[in-house]
């Protein structure tokens, strides 16, 4: 106890009463939306149509992220090429038959290229070092960032390995069945000028206590969840990228072993689905005595089981709002044949309709648009749909809500809420702020493409207030 009191830094998490739920690492691969939101440059395989591919190619050229600017894409032509047949996966194998590589990079400042790669470390699933190389940048180094990178002129002087050499080796290592693990990997991949579609990022996997867009540091996560001290040389001798890679790998392994809720608010608080599960059904014995608990379902666009859907008894993925209505019908009334959801349905259903949100540009995809900084304070920066388009979509959404209302049994509580106000200005101002912070580290004030002053700060506070506004309606059938 005395040692615990004397301990400095983050207090390790208490997992004494935690119930493990072993999960394949593939569940934690970032989706397209998650990659976009974290500012990863997307691999071409994520774009389904020629039009989408052409638009993304144009965006990458404008952002100097194209092959002409030294960027390379791993050799993946289809997303499902990464899938491993079930019969080839050893039982209990948390890596799901995939090759897992944990990566960390160190960078320095250069005159022409901003942040440039100076060291790359890769470790395999077993923790053994696969690659640990110093890299000499192509341009003149203006700051070695030694207190953080550990790189010095003396270390780099004899080095002949270049970024192109590292890219060639990585393109051999990164197959369609390779999952790349790291912490805030978007920065490392930008320094490597490389894209890969299968990413697991511990800065997203372990939520910040105050939620996104905030992210916990790797040092904090290692202290809290691994009870491990890393980056002891931070600010003096620099980081050890092999040590950081292994910390990322161990955090991912822990997540796979303990389950999707580990490292989220659900690991320290109780979700409504967990609360339902320990509340016995009417006429049933207490759950503690073997009785049946109440059930819940999530109905949402995409793959809700990858997010909060895994907490519910049933998770129903949809592609349209009309499918959401049908999903709610299944959840509330049960499957006609009782195959998955028995007759009478679940006790609680959460569902989301997103077509109106998408039409107005309120979804996460707007964060990946090429941002017009000159107009970010003047308006939303996203073309508004025509009045007829908006009216038709509002009418469609209201109709879907009415359809849900009509199928509910008597004495059902129905809550309809908007969730947020318009988030677009807030997202764009946050992007503008990130761009400013990134450039401010390596450029003079007059060279910045954007400037962050009190005017922008006040505009972001106003946009945040707008985004937090919403409406809610409650009725009983």
Give a quick set of tags describing it:
477 residues, alpha/beta, 16 helices
- The secondary structure category is alpha/beta
Total number of β-strand segments? 13
Secondary-structure element series:
HHHEEEEEHHHEHEEHHHHEEHEHHEHHE
The portion of residues assigned to helices is 25-40%
What would the average pLDDT be, to the nearest integer? Answer: 87
Major sheet: size, sense and barrel closure?
A: 6 strands, mixed
What is the overall shape?
globular
Low-confidence stretches: 365-381
Query: End-to-end distance, in Å?
Result: 55 Å
Number of helices: 16
- Our Rg estimate from Cα atoms comes to 25 Å
> How much β-strand is present in the residues?
5-15%
Report on the structure:
The chain has 477 residues and is an alpha/beta fold. Helices cover 33% and strands 14% of the residues. The chain is built from 16 helices and 13 strands. The protein has helices at 2-6, 32-37, 50-62, 146-149, 153-156, 163-173, 185-192, 202-205, 218-226, 241-258, 272-277, 321-333, 355-359, 387-407, 424-440, 454-468; strands spanning 72-73, 99-110, 114-124, 129-134, 141-143, 178-182, 194-195, 199-201, 296-301, 314-318, 348-351, 413-417, 472-476. Strands 2, 3, 4, 5, 6 and 8 form a 6-stranded mixed sheet that branches. A 3-stranded parallel sheet has the order 10-9-11. Strand 3 and strand 4 form a beta hairpin. The radius of gyration is 25 Å and the shape is globular.
């Amino acid at each position: 106890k005395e040692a615990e009191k004397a301990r400095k830094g983050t207090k390790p998490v208490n997992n004494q009463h935690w119930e493990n739920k072993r999960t394949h690492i593939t569940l934690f691969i970032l989706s397209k939306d998650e990659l976009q939101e974290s500012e990863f440059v997307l691999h071409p395989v994520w774009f389904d149509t020629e039009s989408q591919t052409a638009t993304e190619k144009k965006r990458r050229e404008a952002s100097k992220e194209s092959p002409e600017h030294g960027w390379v894409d791993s050799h993946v032509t289809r997303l499902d090429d990464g899938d491993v047949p079930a019969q080839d996966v050893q039982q209990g194998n948390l890596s799901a038959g995939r090759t897992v590589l944990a990566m960390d990079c160190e960078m320095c400042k250069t005159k022409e290229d901003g942040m440039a790669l100076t060291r790359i470390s890769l470790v395999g699933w077993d923790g053994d070092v696969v690659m640990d190389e110093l890299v000499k940048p192509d341009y003149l180094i203006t700051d070695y960032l030694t207190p953080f990178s550990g790189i010095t002129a003396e270390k780099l002087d004899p080095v002949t390995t270049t970024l192109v050499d590292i890219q060639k080796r990585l393109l051999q290592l990164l197959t369609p069945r390779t999952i790349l693990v790291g912490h805030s990997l978007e920065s490392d991949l930008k320094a490597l000028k490389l894209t890969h579609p299968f990413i697991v990022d511990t800065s997203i996997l372990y939520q910040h206590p105050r939620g996104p867009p905030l992210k916990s540091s790797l040092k904090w996560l290692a202290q809290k969840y691994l009870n491990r001290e890393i980056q002891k040389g931070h600010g003096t001798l620099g980081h050890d990228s092999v040590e950081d890679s292994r910390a990322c790998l161990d955090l991912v392994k822990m997540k796979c072993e303990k389950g999707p809720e580990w490292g989220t608010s659900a690991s320290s608080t109780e979700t409504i689905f967990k609360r339902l599960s320990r509340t016995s059904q009417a006429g049933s014995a207490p759950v503690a005595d073997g009785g049946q608990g109440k059930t819940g379902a999530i109905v949402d666009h995409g793959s809700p089981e990858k997010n909060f859907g895994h907490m519910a008894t049933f998770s129903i993925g949809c592609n349209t709002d009309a499918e959401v209505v049908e999903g709610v019908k299944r959840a509330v009334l049960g499957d006609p044949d009782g195959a998955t959801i028995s007759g009478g349905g679940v006790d609680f259903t959460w569902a989301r309709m997103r077509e109106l949100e998408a039409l107005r540009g309120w979804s996460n995809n707007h964060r990946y648009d090429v941002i017009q900084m000159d107009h970010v304070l003047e308006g939303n920066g996203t073309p508004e749909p025509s009045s007829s388009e908006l009216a038709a979509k509002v009418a469609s959404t209201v109709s879907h809500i009415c359809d849900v209302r009509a199928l509910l049994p008597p004495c059902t509580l129905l809550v309809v809420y908007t969730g947020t106000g318009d988030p677009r200005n807030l997202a764009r101002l946050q992007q503008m702020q990130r761009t400013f912070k990134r450039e401010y580290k390596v450029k003079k004030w007059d060279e910045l493409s954007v400037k962050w002053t009190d005017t922008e700060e006040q505009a972001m506070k106003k946009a945040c207030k707008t985004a937090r506004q919403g409406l809610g309606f409650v009725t009983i059938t």
